[in-house]
Structures are given as structure tokens and as C-alpha cells.
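Entry 14. Structure prediction run on the chain below.
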Amino acid sequence: MRRPGAFEPVRRQDKGTVDVAISRDDRGSPAAAASSAPVVQMRFTRRMLLFLAVLLVGPWFLVGFLLIRSGPQQSKPPAAALVDSNETSLAEVSTGKPGPWGVLEYARISLDLPEEYVFVPPSDQPPIRWFFKGYSKERALEFLKSAALSAAQLETLRQAAWTEEADGAAVPPGDELILGLSPAARAKIYSLLVEFPQNSRQIDPVWFHRDLLDVRTKDSGLSDASMALFKRLLYRPTESPLSLFADFEPALRQLPDEPERRRFVKMVSRKKTLLARLKVDADSDTAAMANYWGIGGRRKDAVPLLNALRRTERSHKLSIICLLPDFLRDHIYSYAFPAAGPTAVKQDCFWSAMNALNDPPDDHFGDMQYVHKVLETDYYSILKPTQLCDLVFLTLNNGDAIHAAIYVADDIVFTKNGALHTQPWMLMHESEMIDTYAVRYPSNSPLKVLYFRKKSL
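Output returned:
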């Protein structure tokens, strides 16, 4: 006798059909009793069953075929790209000095601003104003006369709407005069104005190595006229290897439309940085290299990787991202999120440098008083950096700290050159980082460079 609610036995029919019967109660669950429960019968032909099987199984065969076919065409996964076993190398590669870190090679790259960070000042900005701290109008005009301005430019400034305040004098020079300055006049005037914080909106220079100018401006998409305007506004401070650009707003007002202005901002805001790779071959002293890169309890991770590369008896080039502490590895070549409010942590150079070996970061390092306290208690001064994560501090002649970075190896530092979210974390040659800050403090140049090491290392 059939058990109520059970699947009916399969009954084959003479015409190639299969009947299946199921009993259910009115709640939709298998019936527990009631032999009189209604029976639903479904009849399938063999052709229908074959069709259903194709529908169920066929897509999986198709997916497998596509995966196998597309496999060889896929690009390297990011992790594989960190080790290069080929003899090919990056363009314009330079080799660093050997040391306990091994031998590093560097290639220059330029980071673009994220598209959502590109800010074009609105057209209704207040006029540019030059502020001369501690100067009267007459003294400021005497200085401007010494800057080799033309007679017409000097007369324009004499007739301008000067404002004399308790702590200095200010003048709106106008876009026409600003755009018409000679490079020598611009360099002399801006070398003074850049030292006064009241001019930070007007003059916050972006630096370019003259020999690498074409690399920084490559593929910008700017028109020839826009590029010519940019190059005409470059200036060179005395005894500096850099060319500077500071006239964002006057230049943007000369450009024809919003897309061109956005391209201009992106191009000028590019940041030059370095890719660094460690050479590892059968002759490498991987024990010394592991000791260098494995500070802070990470030697256990460095040894297996370096030894594995050495044993292959081939030359490998390993991205140093694989060997950096967590904080550096997680932040390098990236941009911070914009601050969410006035109480948000300031992720500036000091916060970044002091957190190099912290996971998670200590947000108290957004407070300079806390930075000084920890520096005095947990660090000691050294003559020069020789170990990964030594601190590099730049100070003015009066002892004020203006920047901090992390020593990586050779002459390379990990740095964030400013508190704004438009400044990425990146690698630089130490000398170039110093030049970047020296142009902002010309009367204090050369800046003092101090080095510190954590006592626990």
C-alpha cells in the first residue's frame, strides 16, 4: 500500500512517458496521514527530460569553457606583479648604492590627483592680494622697484588700491600684471611673499625639476596655448635646482572652458615619486637583507620570501612594498580621504612618520604636543639614518619642526608633503624632499635636518 504523502514510484509507460505523483496537505507540507489527500500527477516524455537536463547542465559547461579560454589572456594578479623575474626593466631606471638593505633600483613615476579631488576655484574668487608683513606701502614699493619691474608695472602698483594694516601693507596687483611678470621679477617677489602665511592662498608653489618637466606634463591633454601659458609662469628661485609654479587662479581664468581648467589643475598637481625594487639573486646576502627589512618583529616574514627568491638561482626584482611595515605598505601611493569635519584627525607628515610601526595608527599624533612628548621619551638622536624607519625631521633655524618623514633605505624616504588630502604618501629622494620645503622658506635655507631612532629598535 502507498504511504500517504510519499513520492509515487516511477511508472514507465508504453509511450516513453514517466509519471510522478506527490501528495501534499493544504499547508503545502508533506501530508502525514489522510490517505485521501489529493494526488497531483505530472507526465514527462523522455524528450522533455533530456531538454531539462540540458538547461541545468549546459550553462556550467559554457562557463567552464569560457574560463579556460580566457585564462592565458588575463593580466597578472597584483601580487604576482610585485616580483619581476624577467630581464626587462622599467624605463629610465637608476641603481642605488648597495647597503645592508641590498641593491635597489628606482624608476620615476607621476601620480595624478583622483578625479573627485580635482578642485577648480570658482570664478567669483576675491582678487589676488599680495601682503607684505611688517612693510609700509612705501617700503613695499621700494622692494618691488628692486625686483626689476618695468616702469609701467611699477606705476600700476603705485596707483593700485593699497591697504595699510597694523602688521603690514597689502595690494591687489591684478591678473594682467601678475601674468606679465618676468621670471626674474616673479622669483624675487614670490621668494618674499611665500614666507608670510597671509599669502598662502595666492602663493603655494608647486615645484618641477627642469630636466623632468616633460615627464611631469606628458599626456596631460592640455592645448598648446595652455601649456605655453603654464611654462611662461614658471620661475626659478636663486640657487634652486627647481622651477616653481604658483599662479593657479590667474592662469585658470585665462583658460577657455571647465574641462581645460580641470586638465590644467590635474597636470600641475601631479606628484613625482619613485618605484623601488630590490634585486635578489643567488649571490644576495639574504640574511643581512632580512635583518634590515625585518625590524619590528617582521624578520620571520622577510626570511622565507628572500630565501625563496635566492634559491631559484635567477635574478629577481622584488617591489619593496612586500618588505615595508604595515602602515607604510597600506598608505604608499595613496591619498587620504578628505577630513569629515573640524575635529577629524589631521593625517599630516608628523602623524604619518610617528605611526610608521603602529598598527593601528595612533591618532594622538595629530597633536604636535603629543609628537614632541613621544619624541623626547621614546626616541634618541642619531647622526644619520642607517635603519628602516629612522625619523627624518626638517626644522627652521629657530628649531620649529616643519616636516617629518621616514627613512626607507639608501637615500629614499617615505613622506607625505602636507596635511591636505591632495598630498599622497610616496617615496622620494631625501635631497628632493628637502628642496621641496626649502623653496617655501628661502630666508631659512638651508633647513636643518635632524634624525632620530626609536629606543625599542
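The longest helix spans residues 46-70.
Filed with the rest of this week's runs.
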